[in-house]
Amino acid sequence: MREFSKHQQAAIAGLGITETGKVYDKTVTEFATDAIRLAVADAGLTLGDVDGLLFSNGLGGGLTLRLPRDLGLRDLRVLSEISAYGATAIAQVQYACLAIAGGLAETIVCVHADVPLRPSVGAGEAYRASVAGRRSPTGFGAMTMIGGMRGANSMYALAARRYMEAFGVTSEQFGAVAVAQRRWAMMNPRAQFRTPLTIEDHQASRWIVEPLHLYDCCTVSNGAIAIVVTRSERARNLAQPPVYPWGWAQTHSGYAMARDSDFGLVSGAAIGGPAAMKMAGITTTDVDICELYDCYTYTAIITLEDYGFCAKGEGGAFAASGVLGPGGALPTNTGGGQLSSYYLWGMTPLSEAIIQARGQGGERQVAKHDVVMVSGNGGVLDYHGALVLGAQAPI
Amino acid sequence: MSFNLQRDEHSAAFFDATAQGQLLIRRCPRCDEFYPPHQRHCIDGTELEWAPTSGQATLVTWVVDHGAVIDPALAAADGATSVAGMVEFPEGPWMSVALVGVDLETLRAGDALEAHYLRLGDESVPVFGPVGRP
């Protein structure tokens, strides 16, 4: 039985998604203001109703505390930049709900915007180049790079290889995630990649960093997504079906890179998932849909395990069994996820969770959509956010 | 491209040792905990000391970056495939290193490796390969 909590008095009332992908004609601020206007209109509100703003930059930066001026927002009662990398979106939802419950503000917009892509530059190169202030390292930093260790792809490849070695999970099983999500993406008009994908395509795709193939890795997108969070009573009288945060957690592992480390084997999801479900008063069997952070196929698999949807080490076989795709028992990343739809950090899984919980998924809508489990993941499995969303109020 | 591997104040003692074929890691004089070479302070705040390690290590995990730009000296040493890995020293800490002379068909987590020293610019860099490799 779920206990009523004063923290659970807010709901997500609006969602705004700009055009995403190779869109070059907008600055990061323009993307953010577009998404905010879309989200506020979606809720049936006006900018004058907004009294709080929590914004999030990608690695490229650019959004500043001047953002309210670009929207003509005056006399805000909450204003902050939030960052926990890929766990940011869920953290924004938490802080917005707590601020509303605590009386700091009544209607808070959360936005994430990023513009890493440039014309005529490859996505991976552009994403790396967007990291501000990168210089040629000296000393120990240079020594790491000499071996070919380059950024997130290399670090996730290290994690994935350790996981594959420990549990015998195969690249083909990773591929099952990419294939299932592409089938979802083919039904999502917003998805950047909508052509059919097979396991053979996955296996034949070039190495990004072995053991990660091209189709193990997320896309890169320009764009922005915003949501509106307000008091539940108010949300119920607005334009959209409210989506209710039932439970949440942040878990930031801080594991040592030394003997007996969980690096690559267990993530913060193992604590955060059960904590969020406990707060929501549910177990994994109550979850209708998963929207998981999938910067890599491997990330989705380890999160499924850590949340308890399958046993540790069995995530590869679980994915290969077909449960994640359309028609499967655990519809997962139903918009195509970061692998096939759009990559806007934690706003990718959160936005699709809102769409599904509302029942607005169109061709890809999952029939039973009362409870949606959402994850956020930042760093190299360093920062985790877990969120349970309900289509009904949490009473 | 050649990497301009320049020592800094923090890594000077480390590269003095590698020039002699010796590998140093870090040890806390208060709690005796070991750390990788780049770490400066123990989690209790104590400034770490240098401590010699044997150069023996076991493989934790590895990656192959087929597109990486690597130093010509390293490319000559390992056939122009850039293999990097995480190794675990007997004292416990991990270190991110270049791997040379490894057979990717048979490589496994837990494999025994040892340090070799590769001259890059003015410094000797520890890289890890199979035990007994010349």
* Computed structural class of chain B: mainly beta
What global shape of chain B is seen? globular
Largest interface: A-B, 33 and 44 residues
What overall geometry of chain A do the principal axes of the alpha carbons give?
Answer: globular
* Helical percentage of chain A: 25-40%
Q: What is the radius of gyration of chain B computed over CA atoms, rounded to a whole number of angstroms?
A: 15 Å
In round numbers, the mean pLDDT of chain B is: 89
Number of domains of chain B: 1
Distance between the termini of chain B: 25 Å
Main beta-sheet annotation of chain B: 5 strands, antiparallel
Task: List low-confidence stretches of chain B.
Answer: none
Poorly predicted sequence stretches spanning 5 or more consecutive residues of chain A: none
Mean pLDDT of chain A: 94
DSSP helix fraction of chain B: 10-25%
Terminal CA distance of chain A: 9 Å
Can you give keywords for this protein?
heterodimer, A: about 400 residues, alpha/beta, 5-stranded mixed β-sheet, 4-stranded mixed β-sheet, B: about 130 residues, 3-stranded antiparallel β-sheet, 2 helices, about 10% helix, about 40% strand, globular
